[in-house]
Automatic annotation (TrEMBL):
It is found in: Secreted, Extracellular space, Extracellular matrix. This is Fibrillin 1. Disulfide bonds join C70-C80. The keyword Glycoprotein applies. GO terms for molecular function: calcium ion binding. Residues 110-151, 215-266 form the TB domain. It comes from Hucho hucho. Residues 24-65, 66-105, 169-210 form the EGF-like domain. Signal peptide: none annotated. Gene3D superfamilies: Laminin, TGF-beta binding (TB) domain.
Amino acid sequence: MLRTYKCNCNMGFEVDTTGKNCVDIDECAVNRLLCDNGLCRNTPGSFTCHCPTGFLFHAETDVCEDIDECESKPCVNGDCKNSPGSYACLCSAGSTLDASGTQCIETSKGTCWLKVINGRCEININGATLKSHCCSTLGEAWGSPCAKCEPDQFCTKGYARVRGTICEDVNECEVFPGVCINGKCVNTVGSFICQCPSGMTVDATGRTCIDLRTEQCYLSHEDERCGAPIPGRHRVDACCCSVGVAWGSECDECPEKGSQEYSQLCPRGPGFANRGDFINGRPFLKGRSDTFHFKPSPFPYLLYSFRSFLNG
């Protein structure tokens, strides 16, 4: 009687045509869908999948499946968009992606407005300010056309999120050059203070140094000499913003109208003392003429004295 035998091959192997040998099965060649999105490599009795970056091997399906990186929220101050094997952070208008590709940094600057009156933005306090800097400090609105500032849900007043999610102190002295009129701006944690020179006092707004001293006011100034003194003692703004041409014991000449010094001393224009508050910046004009039409004088005694001086 002829004896026969049968080969039972291990998993991953199959009997050859002779029936006498077990040979390796090339799974990668048999099933082209193995390791989809990746690289299939045959091994004795099995195979391995090499998945590229951004993909992960899934044992149940034997394919490389895309990793949704957006689930881990990698984008700071931006929106995440997943793509095969990767992702991208999308920044809103006014922001730019940094070198890491994960943080949107605020870069767009616009007009910062101090007041919103009857739905209108007024008093431009700086022409080139980041929105977060504007709205977290002095501004009530930002941009052109302007939009009312919304409070930051994460940062307190004086702090802003320009880069990432960290609330950082805003240096108002750098963001708003000249914020302290006639004084020196000193940044503090979450705020700032205005330091005034000797003889001047900060006003109620905390942003303007005003001279409250009262001295002699003069109607003439020639060859460094003062003449025609007005009776009484007057503040420098009451003198120089009205009829005076020089002021004080040192006979200091009043700043020339139209100069920066005059604008600082008389921000409301001729005929108005500097109360130290912020106004809407619109001069008292009638029609389209460039001539000022003054309201009743805020210095009645000063003008009365002037008339009395002229009348002898």
